[in-house]
Each structure stands twice: as structure tokens, then as C-alpha cells.
Design brief:
By secondary structure, the protein is of the alpha+beta class. 66% of the residues lie in helices and 9% in strands.
């Protein structure tokens, strides 16, 4: 048969055992005193008075111990500790009266030693122990009828006193250790609860940031496109150009359908529909064609082209989404703000990294002034570049913006490729 490891014995378990032993010892010694009292002659003076007093002592002791137990388990709200000294004084006085009425009750002094040393301050407890020891010695000396206290009468109580002091010290050390463990456990539970709350809050904030980026880079831009194309359709309709109006309405319908697909994928927690059935290269090429067509629908002359450098490899899905969203956000800024005539989206696989550059020949701006609007504008716009930077940095990449008034803009993104992806690229090139 295999030996089964016993559960570890804790200080709390040892303390419970000592308390139970103390109460059982008090009950047994009190019962012995009562039995010896009942065995005495019926005509003994005070016999029934001492019997009643012993029963009152038993009841008082039980009331105190039960109250302490109920408070420790939480069933009693008020702490009985403030009545402990009064309770201890009552049972000590009753014990002293019983001891001088019948010496058989003197042995109750041993559990009383522990109570005094535990409930009273150290100096007061030891003082009471010495006084009770002297009382026991004196009571047993009177009972013996000797001229001098016999040696056993002195040695027994003194030895019991010394043993009680030593055991009480060990009990105090165990009690302090138990309190330290309880406080440490409470602190650990509070720390775990605080950590769980912090992690939950961080998760909520991260999810909000993710949704904000997704909505800005897809739905918000789609709605902006719908508004601009709708205005162009209204102008074409007002001028009687039904062909242009039809093209604008077709563009509105296509953009709304894409936005609907994006919204449904948000609900399902899926990736971009543009990457569901096509590669990143095809998606970027189609994005350029769509951007140029939207610009033409609004009456603009933006030419948008796509360029690929290097041999494409299968990128992780977060990389694909990041690069596609970056191109969408950059081109949206081009036709919304840059007033450019041409734009170029360049995707390059360079061995150690994959890069995406979006160039336009628009009016440009001063990049150092971006910090003034990085938190977004009052109307909810101005979130794009901050969202794009957070998305790129989340993948361990970098975002750089080069621009100057009248000289166009370049948005450059760099994402690192790990060893496995580079090995795959080398195999394909080989």
C-alpha cells in the first residue's frame, strides 16, 4: 500500500486543540471535585452550598466559552473580550471559595493558570498565577493537618505553575503566528481582488481603445465617404447630370455595404472582410483603385497607385490588419485633407521587416504640430494618427511621418519579421 501524505498541521489547528484540551480539562477537574463533594457525609456543613456554587461556576464558565466561540465564528456581533476580565474574576473567586470549602477543587487551578496568562497582561497574569499557587499550597497544607507544608504539597503546585507558564508562552507564540498568517492571508486576498479589478479595468480600456481604432479606421471613414459622395450626387442631380448621379449613388451603395460588413464582423469579433478572401497585396491594390474611383465620383482628380517590392510572404493576421488599416487611414487623410493629385501606396518585404509607405503630393503640414491635436478635436475628428500609432506600436513596429507645407506627406510604417517568417521568405526566394 502507498503511504498517503497527511495534510500539514497549521498553527490554527494546534490552537484549537489546546483550547479544546483546556475546556475538557476544566470540565473533568470540576466534575471530580463535585463527585468528591457528593461522597462526603450528608451532614457536612455547607455541603449543599458548595454544590450549588460549583454548578454556578460550571454555568459561568460555559457562558464565557460559548460567547467566545460564537464571536470567533461570526455568529455573535459584539466582542465578549471586554467582559473577559470580569468573567475571569468571577470564576476565580468562585474557585477560591470552593477550594477552601473542599480541597478537591484545588486542582482546577491548572486550567485557570492558562486563562489568567492568556487573558491578562503578562505581569498581571504571572502575579495571579503566583498568588493562586500560594493559595493552593496553603489550602492543601491546612487540609493535611501538618505543622509544616509537606514537600508534595509544595512541589506539585509549583511544578504545575512552571509548566503552565511555559505552555502559555508557547501558546502565545502560536497565537501570534496564527494572527500573522491570518493577516497575510487577508492581505493576499485584498491584493488578488485589487489585481483582478485592475486587470479587468485594463481589459475594458484596451477593448475600448481597440474598438475606437476599428470604428475610426473603417466605419467612420466609410460614413465620411458616404457623406462626401452624397453631396457630389446632389450637385450632379441639381445640374441634370444623371450619369454622374448614378455613379455617385452606386459608390454610396458599395461603401454602405462595406460598412455593413465591417459592423457585422465587429459583432462576430472577426477580422476585416477585405482580408477574408483576398491577400494583403490584393486588398491594398483594390483599396487604391477604390480611393481613386471615390475621388473621381466627387469630381476630384486623385491618382492612386500601388507598388510592391520584394517577394510577399504570409504575414500574421494582426500584421495584415494593421497594414491594411494604416493604408485606409492614410488614404482617407489624403483625400480629406491633403488636396493631392497623386498618391502611392508602397508595400515592401525587406527580409528583417515589412514596410508600408503612403506618399501624396498634397499641401503637406508641419508634423511637430501634431501634438496639439493628438487627443482629438471637439467634433471627434483628429483621432486617426494617434489610433494608427497605437495600432503599429502594439505590433512592435514604428511609425514615422515626413511632411512640410507644400511638399506632400509620407507615412512610413515598419513592422519587424521574426526568424520563422524570414526563413519562410528565404525558402520562397530560393
Amino acid at each position: 500500500m502507498y503511504a498517503v501524505d497527511a495534510p500539514p498541521v497549521t498553527s490554527a489547528a494546534i490552537l484549537r486543540f489546546l483550547r479544546v484540551t483546556l475546556h475538557v480539562g476544566f470540565a473533568v477537574l470540576l466534575a471530580v471535585g463535585i463527585v468528591r463533594l457528593l461522597m462526603e457525609p450528608i451532614g457536612r456543613p455547607g455541603r449543599y452550598l458548595f454544590l450549588v456554587l460549583s454548578l454556578v461556576l460550571a454555568a459561568t464558565y460555559v457562558v464565557g466559552t460559548v460567547a467566545e466561540k460564537r464571536f470567533s465564528t461570526g455568529s455573535l456581533q459584539r466582542n465578549p473580550r471586554r467582559w473577559a476580565v470580569l468573567w475571569l474574576a468571577l470564576i476565580t473567586v468562585m474557585w477560591a471559595v470552593l477550594m477552601f470549602g473542599s480541597v478537591e477543587f484545588s486542582w482546577l487551578v491548572f486550567p485557570l493558570f492558562f486563562l489568567h496568562l492568556h487573558l491578562l497582561p503578562r505581569w498581571a497574569g504571572i502575579t495571579m498565577v503566583l498568588l493562586m499557587t500560594a493559595g493552593v499550597v496553603f489550602a492543601q497544607w491546612l487540609s493535611s493537618g501538618s505543622d509544616f507544608p509537606p514537600l508534595p504539597v509544595v512541589v506539585g503546585p509549583v511544578f504545575g505553575m512552571a509548566f503552565s507558564v511555559a505552555t502559555s508562552k508557547a501558546y502565545r507564540l502560536l497565537y501570534q503566528e496564527g494572527e500573522i498568517q491570518r493577516q497575510a492571508a487577508d492581505e493576499l486576498r485584498r491584493t488578488r481582488a485589487a489585481l483582478a479589478a485592475t486587470q479587468h479595468e485594463s481589459g475594458v480600456l484596451a477593448e475600448r481603445a481597440r474598438l475606437a481604432r476599428e470604428i475610426h479606421d473603417t466605419l467612420a471613414q466609410g460614413f465620411s465617404s458616404i457623406i462626401l459622395v452624397s453631396r457630389a450626387a446632389r450637385r450632379s442631380l441639381a445640374s441634370g447630370d444623371l450619369e454622374s448621379t448614378g455613379e455617385s449613388l452606386a459608390m454610396v451603395e458599395a461603401t454602405a455595404a462595406e460598412n455593413l460588413a465591417e459592423a457585422r464582423n465587429f459583432v462576430r469579433g472577426l477580422t476585416s472582410p477585405a482580408l477574408a478572401e483576398t491577400s494583403l497585396v490584393e486588398s491594398l491594390s483594390r483599396l487604391c483603385t477604390q480611393t481613386q474611383r471615390e475621388a473621381a465620383t466627387r469630381g476630384g482628380s486623385l491618382r492612386c497607385s500601388f507598388r510592391l517590392d520584394g517577394e510577399p510572404i504570409d504575414l500574421p493576421q494582426p500584421y495584415k490588419v494593421t497594414l491594411l488599416r494604416a493604408a485606409q487611414a492614410s488614404l482617407a487623410n489624403v483625400w480629406l485633407h491633403a488636396k493631392a493629385s497623386s498618391a502611392v501606396v508602397s508595400l515592401a518585404f525587406l527580409g528583417t521587416e515589412v514596410t508600408l509607405d503612403v506618399y501624396d503630393d498634397g499641401r503637406g503640414f508641419e508634423p511637430e504640430k501634431l501634438a496639439d491635436t493628438v487627443a482629438g478635436r471637439a467634433d471627434g475628428s483628429g483621432f486617426g494618427l494617434r489610433s494608427l500609432r497605437e495600432r503599429v506600436e502594439a505590433q512592435g513596429g514604428t511609425l514615422a511621418i515626413e511632411s512640410a507645407p507644400g511638399e506632400g506627406t509620407v507615412v512610413a510604417i515598419r513592422l519587424p519579421l521574426d526568424e520563422s517568417l524570414r526563413a519562410l521568405q528565404g525558402d520562397r526566394n530560393g
